[in-house]
C-alpha cells in the first residue's frame, strides 16, 4: 500500500517535471511582451558633476529656437504651427498640444539643445520631467529614435530609460545630471541609418551624446527604433524632422532654450 502511494507520487512528480520542461521550451514570442521585459536597472551609472558652460550657435548653424518664436516647429500630429508656450526666452511643453517637430527634415547632423525641469518638480521615475529628443521623427505610428530627457538627479528608474539614455537601448556611461531647476544641455552627433532599395538596412544609425558637456553615448550603434514595448527594428526613411516629446505623465512640464543644428553633408 505504502509502495503504491510512493509510486503514484513518483508518477505525479514525473508528470510535473515534464510540464515544467514543456513550459521552459515554449517557443520565444508566445508570451505577450511587457514594457518591463526590456528594462535594465543595474549597474547604476556613476554621478559626475559637470562644468558650467553652454555652447552658443556657430555661424553655420540653423537656429531652431532662439527664445523668440516657434517658427521652426510644427505639430507632430498635423503639421500645423506648434503651440507650446513661449515666454521669457524659453519654450515650455504644452502637454495638451502633443509632440512638436522641426519644420525641416534632416539626415546627419550635430544638435545642441538646453532644457530644464521646474525646481519644484514632483513625481518619480519615468513620471518626473519626462520628455525626449527624437533624433529622427520618421512618421505617424513610428516610435522613432529617442534620446531620453528625464530628471536624472537622484531619480531612480530603469537605467536604460534614465536621462542621457538611448531609450531602452543604451545606458549612459555616467550621470552628469543637474538638480531640477538648473539648465542642462545635450550635444548630439547623429549618423542616420541608410537603407537599400528594397527597404532593408544598409548601415545602422550611430549616435554620440554629450550631456552637460560629458560624454554619455560614444558612437553607439542603434538596433533600430527605440520602442516602449518589444525589440527594436529598423524601418526605411531618408530624411526626418527632429521631434520633442510632450510626455503624458503628471509632473510639471519642462522648458527648452537655445536649440540649433548643423547639417553634416
Ligand atoms: Mg521620453
Summarize, please:
The chain is mainly beta and 265 residues long.
Fold topology:
Elements: H1 2-24, E1 62-65, E2 73-75, E3 85-87, E4 90-92, E5 100-102, E6 109-116, E7 131-134, E8 146-149, E9 184-191, E10 194-195, E11 201-203, E12 206-211, E13 214-221, E14 243-244, E15 255-263
Antiparallel strand pairs: 1-15, 2-5, 3-4, 4-15, 5-14, 6-9, 6-15, 7-8, 7-14, 9-12, 10-11, 12-13
Characterize the largest beta sheet: strand count, sense, and whether it forms a barrel: 8 strands, antiparallel
Helix content: under 10%
Bound molecules: magnesium ion
What is the name of the CATH class? Mainly Beta
Low-pLDDT residue spans: 17-26
What is the rounded Rg?
A: 23 Å
Return the structural class: mainly beta
**Terminal-residue CA separation:** 85 Å
**How many strand segments?**
15
CATH superfamily: Exo-inulinase, domain 1
Instruction: Write down the domain tally.
Output: 1
Second rung of CATH, namely the architecture = Sandwich
Whole-number average pLDDT? Answer: 90
Beta-strand fraction estimate: 25-35%
Number of helices: 1
What characteristic shape results from the CA principal axes?
globular
H/E series, N to C?
HEEEEEEEEEEEEEEE
CATH fold naming: Jelly Rolls
